[in-house]
From TrEMBL, chains A, B:
Protein name: alanine transaminase
Top-rank EC class of the record's enzyme: transferase
Subunit structure: Homodimer.
Pfam families: Aminotran_1_2
Positions of the Aminotransferase class I/classII large domain: 124-512
Amino acid sequence: YSDHCPLTPLKWARQLFLINSFSVRRSARDITNMSQQAANGLPCRGKVLNLDNMNPNVRRVEYAVRGAIVQRALQIDKELKEGVKKPFTEVIKANIGDAHAMGQKPITFLRQVLALCAYPDLLDDNKFPDDSKQRARRILEACGGHSIGAYSSSQGIECIRQDVARYIEKRDDGISSDPDNIYLATGASDAIVTMLKLLVCGKGRDRTGVMISIPQYPLYSAALADLAAVQINYYLDEDKCWSLDIAELKRAVTAARQHCNPRVICIINPGNPTGQVQSRQCIEDVIRFAKEEHLFLMADEVYQDNVYAEGCKFHSFKRVLFEMGPEYSTTVEMASFHSTSKCYMGECGFRGGYMEVINMDPEVKAQLTKLVSVRLCPPVPGQALLDLVVNPPQPDEPSYDKFMKERTAVLAALAEKAGLTEQIFNTVPGITCNPVQGAMYTFPRITLPQKAIDKAKAEGQVPDMFYCMKLLEEEGICLVPGSGFGQREGTFHFRMTILPPTEKLKFVLQKISDFHIRFTQEFS
Amino acid sequence: YSDHCPLTPLKWARQLFLINSFSVRRSARDITNMSQQAANGLPCRGKVLNLDNMNPNVRRVEYAVRGAIVQRALQIDKELKEGVKKPFTEVIKANIGDAHAMGQKPITFLRQVLALCAYPDLLDDNKFPDDSKQRARRILEACGGHSIGAYSSSQGIECIRQDVARYIEKRDDGISSDPDNIYLATGASDAIVTMLKLLVCGKGRDRTGVMISIPQYPLYSAALADLAAVQINYYLDEDKCWSLDIAELKRAVTAARQHCNPRVICIINPGNPTGQVQSRQCIEDVIRFAKEEHLFLMADEVYQDNVYAEGCKFHSFKRVLFEMGPEYSTTVEMASFHSTSKCYMGECGFRGGYMEVINMDPEVKAQLTKLVSVRLCPPVPGQALLDLVVNPPQPDEPSYDKFMKERTAVLAALAEKAGLTEQIFNTVPGITCNPVQGAMYTFPRITLPQKAIDKAKAEGQVPDMFYCMKLLEEEGICLVPGSGFGQREGTFHFRMTILPPTEKLKFVLQKISDFHIRFTQEFS
């Protein structure tokens, strides 16, 4: 397998854009374009902006979670609405971690406060509990003109950053957090891209290299393509429950030093798409590795509240860093990312998130603050939501019981579904599935018959895309092929969220299992 | 003056970062850092990420609207709160177009619907008018799981894009608009940066050049620095009310062709920071110029509802393009930008906006859709807000009267303040001010005594920064120096919003006038 190349540009993705109604064939379009100009008596010139002269980095960007298969799924949705007959009545989109779209209800307290912030006349309404009103008043007082319609400071509202810092301190048993090191963002994605942008420089062999896990969440590969940074792949060990092995990190960084300047290591814990939860020991080893190799550490910890497996526990990178003593805690440069989109709340649409930076050069921090100021500020409703997430109702407050009941129910259901998924998939010959220790996804390995692989190749598709597309057409279930995340050559996977309601999830798991058996027979 | 160089890096900005508490001096810091490592028995290595090895494009980014002077203003705010005595009791931030922060009240209808969307239990509440409930239901039905907490499609919720298209059609007297050409965004800034990113390619003399007005809104120069594109300056004619002269466009593009590949022209109409409203003739000339020079046209029209001066009218670039006939309407590639942050609603915090693309190559559009999918979707509350802005209450609906009353009051007050600003400033010797025909700012020219210019230079500051900083320290009024937007060499300006409530605005205008006279005397 390839050690350091970017993920092979997913040819299927481009090919499948042709499915889209707007994907006119190039030559035909150019001819139309030119004939029109010629008819107008003008010199023949093509578009100012076309596929050949657009930003080549953008062309290289791929984002499978919303790639060709999802576009086809949307099209099938439309066909169903138009009355086209299919072997199913709805498309189930298990491609993305979108809890509310899968029927999860919003947490009452969060939405009460948001409504109060949006329309403060409701502060006189006795239908709202007192603590929701107090939170809303506090947020509004921190807003310009007491309105969430005012811009906030670019780094985020100060009192919310203070709440975030206190939340981190509590999470990490008292290790201090400075609100000046907190940057609120438009979802964690925004903060991750901003941090990567700061880190990229150099040309040729001096170009910044960024270590990412394979499988990875494709935001990383997409951002690196956009920034023309060098992607350095390190492989998680599927046979050991997707664990991370330091020897593999060493191999990857050593090989990469031949052709780029490795400066960053990105870790996703709990894992996306792989669902593993890292041990404390592993985190310590990664920190030691980052220090030895002089790497900036980016810890994507957006699933920190999504841990289900017995014996597993979330350890924050920051906490482990500080527990390793000043030799590490005063030197290793790090950023940690969190989001309002996952955990028990699943509020993806609000685009709330934050990052905490640790040991960052003060001059670089000034540059970071300047950079984020260009976009003015993260969405204020998302900031308000984040404030509630990091500062939920307390036991002596009226909303506490209901809040805890709702929160616990969501997390318990997720834990049940994590177990169910592993259990059912592992009964199917040809599907092997690691436990879903955390996060919201399963990434099972699928054995594909050689005939299917050949057929896919003949049709110019990667085999797991061929598989997923067939599943979509036959069963109306939308998954993301493993190739969209990266996988060892010759292995095939898909990513599926565990978010559908339990009964629907069972239905989906059964459908996929039946399909897999049928697919295997068809191509044997 | 310089024709094509990027704005001179605003040295004051970097210098003034030193004001910030976190700006430790470099050498001192390095020594500390190294001693610590040496004490730990490790080889001396600096930070993984420092000012010298960070992304050099990011270093070149400047954004004066939230630059050094605003940071100093925030610091003075804190000093006041801590009881430090000043010649004033509050800092008035006239640096940014932030209506709510200046006391403008949110429009009731918008906030009612947003509250209903956030907390749908309120749909049973008889305090809300029926039309607000209908809007909320319609938006929620278009959301995944009927929740604004679900991700939307990356291009934005389909029914909202349809509403945007209908709004554009109505605005442009029936010229058709295709919802597939609408991209919702995280404020107009996001859409502008995305569009510029698509357009940038090439190296050396083939590098993409982008024409922007001087003075400009510094989002443009910041984005071009970030993308390492070539900024091509064209100068607005201050003596003719900041009008745009085609001869100047020709001069700029011709000069630029010597060293880059001009591919884009950006126009801000109504103007920011300059407040002019372009005539229909001028827009036609610009379109003709764009076609002749084979340029992609970016029309920043976020102030389209902010037109105050008699005889002035907003003409959309799209409408003029289509009225020029198929020779233009089928060939000129264009994007137009709009926002929920300005006009009568001023809802900056929600980060809502859209762009409409016209005549864009279908393959490039597929790439654009792919690119925006990496960030998943714009904030859904901002999308909901945009829907209400493009589809406000109709005359037969219960909210209509109140909505119109509120809307009219805001726009009438702005018109009054636009007049007042021009009038008062023009009575001051040494301040000359064009009429504020539209938008939300005045950009008066200030005559500075030579002694002040020399003093500023001796202190390493650009003269208008020196002026604005002194105004801030003495009067507590925060403006943005003209150098942050660009201006003809040897001229000096500042940008001020006209947003403070009328009485406060009068107070601010008087304070600035008095300060200007005092400043002139002090340095004469």
